[in-house]
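A quick aside before the break. I want you to see a complete sequence-to-structure record at least once, exactly as it would be stored in a machine-readable document. Don't worry about memorizing anything.
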Amino acid sequence: MADENITAKKQENKNTKRLMTNKNYAFKKRLPVRPIDGNNVIFVTKKTNFKLHSCFQAQLDKCCDLLTRGEKEIILHGLGAAIQRCCNLALQLEILFSGTCQIEVNTGTVDLVDDLEPLVDDLDFGSQVRHSSSIHIRIFRTAMLGANQ
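That is the input. The structure line, written in tokens, reads:
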């Protein structure tokens, strides 16, 4: 019984602290740091909509074009809610290039920074760090289509 009261008070203190900072500051999310930039690097976002298939189809087409033009590997990156979409894109590519591609998956955590802009004049600017899950999928060719093996 006492443990439940302590847990409830801790939760109440956390919520109160968050509400006070929200009233005093406006949160501005910075863009995440991009690990590598190149022609064969694709960043999947949560705006990649599967219901309309237009954004997903565009990214799928770009990946297919890169692999059929002779690119040895492509790298897919996804953060947070985009991890599932990134995995789906990689699996679609594996189905399309069956037997000629392999997938290497790495997961991790990325630090994201939010700027705190004061809504009141007597407060200072600040920042806060939060963590988000990330996935990096490397798709590489093991054999070329139509090649004699």
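Two observations worth writing down. The first strand starts at residue 25 and ends at 29. The radius of gyration is 22 Å. We'll return to this after the break.
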